């Protein structure tokens, strides 16, 4: 029997989506219009197609408008930037998400920077990254935002706790570290050049793994009683010859030591989409408030 509490991301996300749907209902009454999310997909990457389909479905379920733009793989950078510009100026669109990765001939950075920061519901624009780093009110990237919500729900006040974030990507690791710093944690960021990762892990009251290496973090790396958030989503061969999803943490081992842990699947993943909907509603409210 595992000792750790399993943090149920699915249930948490369902509650957040219900809260967003209620917020959308109030928004409609207040402004006589519906928040809208535009999702842009370039190419036919099967994983991206599934993400985009799910995002559209959940956007509609929350009572918002979903505008889906599917463009062919050979779309030029100029044409994509043209679409982003059109969406920036469309009053029915409050959030814009361009599904990554983009085909190699298109600069992701250029496209992200072309999105109006007020509509950048992924929170990847340099303005939103800067606001997060300087304590401003920007839009926070969905995955770390979901991790923080679950952490605060489980732990309460995070102030003074030692937090380790493994991974320094712009979409997960860095914003996660910023959020934890904002909660007054003592934050360490580990990455591929970190010398003794196990020793760093053993110090952490809060451990967030966003690496992309299946089951990298072992049970004996974890401080007894720590709270573990596993962001990793790795496809590995399963016992039945099919593939299965694995996190960056060895769940069975970690659950014997941690006080609470998110499973994969069913932990961080569902929260990411729920936070996208929450960010879209937040963006819509701010746009209406600023005229
Ligand atoms: P990334 O490849 O951009 O970054 C990975 C980071 O891990 C890098 O900073 C690298 O320095 C570090 N790293 C790599 N190997 C390491 C090692 N051996 N020891 C320590 N650090 C190491 O990945 P990302 O986009 O940040 O995603 C990380 C993981 O999270 C992936 O599995 C991804 O699929 C998953 N993810 C999940 C969600 C979700 O919604 N659940 C969202 C985004 C990413």
Architecture overview:
This protein is α/β, with parallel strands linked by helices and 291 residues long. The chain folds into two domains: 86 residues, Rossmann fold (3-Layer(aba) Sandwich); 128 residues, NAD(P)-binding Rossmann-like Domain (Rossmann fold), CATH 3.40.50.720. Helix content is 42%, strand content 16%. It is built from ten helices and eleven strands. The strands form three sheets. Strands 1-11-8-7-5-6 form a six-stranded parallel sheet. The protein has a three-stranded parallel sheet with strand order 3-2-4, with helices on both faces. A two-stranded antiparallel ribbon has the order 9-10. Helix 1 runs parallel beside helix 10, helix 6 packs parallel to helix 7 and helix 6 packs across helix 10. The longest helix has 23 residues. The model has no long low-confidence stretch (mean pLDDT 97). It binds nicotinamide-adenine-dinucleotide. Nicotinamide-adenine-dinucleotide (NAD) binds next to helix 10. The site of nicotinamide-adenine-dinucleotide (NAD) has 25 residues, from helix 10.
Order of strands across the widest beta sheet? 1-11-8-7-5-6
Q: What string gives the helices and strands in order?
A: EHEHEHEHHHEHEHEEEEHEH
**Which range best describes the helical content: under 10%, 10-25%, 25-40%, 40-55%, 55-70% or over 70%?**
40-55%
Number of DSSP E strands: 11
State the CATH architecture of the largest domain: 3-Layer(aba) Sandwich
Average pLDDT: 97
Domain count, please report it: 2
Shape: globular
Given helix and strand content, the structural type is: alpha/beta
CATH topology of the largest domain: Rossmann fold
Distance between the termini: 55 Å
The CATH H-level homologous superfamily of the largest domain: NAD(P)-binding Rossmann-like Domain
């Amino acid at each position: 029997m595992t000792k750790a509490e399993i943090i149920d991301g699915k249930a948490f996300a369902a509650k957040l989506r219900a809260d967003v749907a209620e917020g959308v209902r109030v928004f409609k009454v207040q402004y006589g219009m519906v928040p809208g999310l535009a999702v842009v997909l370039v190419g036919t990457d099967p994983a991206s197609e599934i993400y985009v389909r799910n995002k559209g479905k959940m956007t509609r379920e929350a009572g918002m408008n979903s505008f889906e733009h599917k463009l062919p793989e050979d779309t030029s950078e100029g044409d994509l930037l043209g679409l982003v510009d059109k969406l920036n100026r469309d009053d029915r669109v409050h959030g814009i998400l361009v599904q990554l990765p983009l085909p190699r001939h298109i600069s992701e950075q250029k496209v992200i920077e072309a999105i109006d920061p007020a509509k950048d519901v992924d929170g990847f624009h340099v303005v939103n990254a800067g606001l997060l780093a300087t304590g401003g009110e920007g839009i926070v990237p969905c995955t770390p935002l979901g991790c923080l919500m679950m952490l605060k729900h489980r732990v309460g006040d995070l102030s003074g706790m030692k937090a380790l974030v493994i991974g320094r990507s712009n979409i997960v690791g860095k914003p996660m570290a910023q959020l934890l710093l904002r909660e007054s944690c003592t934050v360490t960021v580990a990455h591929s050049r970190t010398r003794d990762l196990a020793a760093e892990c053993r110090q952490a009251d809060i451990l967030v793994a966003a690496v992309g290496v299946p089951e990298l973090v072992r049970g004996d790396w974890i401080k007894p009683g720590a709270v573990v958030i596993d962001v990793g989503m790795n496809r590995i061969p399963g016992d039945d010859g099919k593939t299965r999803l694995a996190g960056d943490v060895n769940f069975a081992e970690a659950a014997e030591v941690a006080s609470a842990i998110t499973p994969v699947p069913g932990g961080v993943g569902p929260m990411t989409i729920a936070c996208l909907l929450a960010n879209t509603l937040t963006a819509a409210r701010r746009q209406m408030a600023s005229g």
